[in-house]
Amino acid sequence: MNHPLLSRRGLLIYLGIWVFIGVLQVFRLVHFASIPLDIALVDGFFSSVWFGVLGFSLWYYVCHSRRQHLTFLHTLGGYVFAGVVVLAIWVAGDYTIMSVIFRDNPIAISYLWQSIPWRMGGGVGLYALIILSYVMILGSADLKEKKLTEERLRESLKQSELNLLKSQINPHFLFNSLNSASMLTLTAPERAHEMIVALSEYLRYSISGSHEKYSPFHLELENSRRYLGIEKIRFEDKLIVDFVVASDCSACLVPSMILQPLYENAIKHGVYEATGQVKVVTVAKVQEAFLLVEISNTFEPNVSAKKGAGLGIANVRGRLQMLYGNDHSWLQVLPEDGQFTVKMTIPLRVT
Predict the structure, then answer these.
(1) Which domains does the chain have, with CATH numbers?
(2) Residue 83 to residue 181: CA distance in whole angstroms
(3) Is the C-alpha dihedral spanning 42, 48, 51, 55 positive or negative?
(4) Cα 323 to Cα 26: distance, rounded to the nearest angstrom
């Protein structure tokens, strides 16, 4: 860490403090110790500024001492030794200057010798104050750095969790799509080609989009259409898809790949085991400060649903809570009257 006073403003403030201490010292010497003004001025200002110079350099000793990671007793002993050295240099400097300037003034020389005891006492107090100030500054800096490190670790962990949730594309969809494309190459080559092209575009976007935290809603919706188009080739007339999307939704930013698990859930639990047609409807609109997305699918209540761990909806809810706060209202699940509806609320942000 750089010296906290190594700036023009810091140096001026530091110098101003010691000049103020010098003024107080001059006032004390003249009015309470009856010292002549010329002696008081030289001693007061030089003594204060000289101690300030020594105090400035103590920063580097405190930093060095902290880097050694010594025990409390060793650290305290080091500070005591440094204090003795600093006070000796300070008093020696005062004595040298006063002796040179007032070498023919016996009053000044007498005062100089008599002032050593209280000078040392005052120096100990100033030394302790400077050391304590530096220790507190370094402690505060360490605390800030620790908080920043913890925040970076939390953000890194959060991002890792988000990446993990985004990366959980249902492998069964890929296997089933490839198997369907393989069978279609024998019966309907053109549809097989259409399916492979759609699957390629879907995977390309899924892989590239997984590296982004947010994506425009229209891009997410376009990739979801590819996914549903692939499933439409597989299930043919059994699957009906409908979109009711307001135009002002296009530029809204949403978490990347946030829609995919919801459509996978609709296909898995609505279409797979159904004997009749299943309709998947997407409704999106902007309302006040939120983007509202509603994905619903019909299902047959009397047909046993395909078993699963329910990770899709759980992952979406987890991502929304990590991004926007721990609130369950971001995602609502409403299964009723032969229709399964997922309502997602996303705070409004636009590109």
Answers:
(1) 8-162 (no CATH), 167-347 (3.30.565.10)
(2) 83
(3) negative
(4) 62
Alpha-carbon gap, residue 2 to 276, rounded angstroms: 73
Q: Provide the 3-class DSSP secondary structure of residue 48.
A: helix
Per-residue pLDDT of the chain (351 residues; tens, 9 = 90+): 788 888 888 899 999 999 999 999 899 888 888 888 988 898 888 999 999 999 999 999 998 888 787 788 888 899 999 999 999 999 999 889 888 888 888 888 888 888 888 888 889 999 999 999 999 998 888 888 888 877 876 776 666 565 555 555 556 667 777 777 887 788 788 888 888 888 888 878 777 765 678 899 999 999 889 888 888 888 888 999 999 999 999 999 998 888 988 998 888 888 877 878 899 999 999 998 999 999 999 887 776 555 544 567 888 888 888 888 877 789 999 888 788 999 999 999 887
Q: What's the pTM value of the predicted model, to 2 decimals?
A: 0.53
User: How many other CB atoms are there within 10 angstroms of residue 270's CB atom?
Assistant: 22
* Closest by CA position to 254, among listed 314, 327, 152, 331: 331
